[in-house]
Amino acid sequence: MTISRIQETKRGRMSLFDENDEFLFSIDTETLAKTHIKEGTKLSPLELDAVRQQSDERKAKDKALYYISMRDYASKELFDKLALKFDADTCAAAVAEMQRLDLINDAAFAVHRAKYLAKQNKSVSTIKQTLAQKGISKEDIAAALDEATPADDDACCAIIKKSYMRKLENGDTDKVIAAMARRGFSYGAIKAALERVNEEAL
């Protein structure tokens, strides 16, 4: 296949056209320079696919940089975000590059997110579930919980004091227990928190 025409797009990419002047795909200027493609260049189907893949990887890396400039991402979370626009191999290459540059770090992300959720008085089980949904490994979750979260009964106690004192005063202890259980707190943590609240009220 012969590249008959190269035309710049409005977004600054370079459109490639074949010998029949039919559009093939667009690539970034860096890939164009690295591959030394110009009008009249002959490429086999395999070479053409390699050029497309190289350009897609560059585009995915740029998109990954944009995403992580807005907020922190876990590796799987970033992969899933990129997968809305790119194939799996391209996404994996972009995520690997972000890891190589130390721009994403699952262990650090887990600690940061666990601390944030703990400040919101989320239960340990809720924090664990949230981190798991973002693709954090069990090891990183355990380490983050050890470093970032207080005892469950502390968080449970804070929520009861803030939102459920009136129910306790009205004798609706069972409703409070049920509400806290729905928030992900264990019965043991709820019981300990209720005992503390009652002791402090004396």
Description:
- The chain is mainly alpha-helical.
- It has three domains: 5-100, Winged helix-like DNA-binding domain superfamily/Winged helix DNA-binding domain (Arc Repressor Mutant, subunit A), CATH 1.10.10; 106-148; 152-201.
- Helices cover 65% and strands 6% of the residues.
- It has helices spanning 29-35, 45-70, 75-82, 88-100, 106-119, 124-133, 138-148, 152-163, 165-169, 173-182, 187-201, and strands spanning 5-8, 14-17, 23-27.
- Strands 1-2-3 form a three-stranded antiparallel beta sheet.
- Strand 1 and strand 2 (14-17) form a beta hairpin.
- The longest helix has 26 residues, at 45-70.
Subunit arrangement of the protein: single chain
Proportion of residues in β-strands:
5-15%
List SSEs in N-to-C order.
Answer: EEEHHHHHHHHHHH
Number of helices: 11
CATH class membership of the largest domain: Mainly Alpha
The CATH architecture term of the largest domain is: Orthogonal Bundle
Keywords, please?
single chain, mainly alpha, Arc Repressor Mutant, subunit A, 3 domains, 3-stranded antiparallel β-sheet, rod-shaped
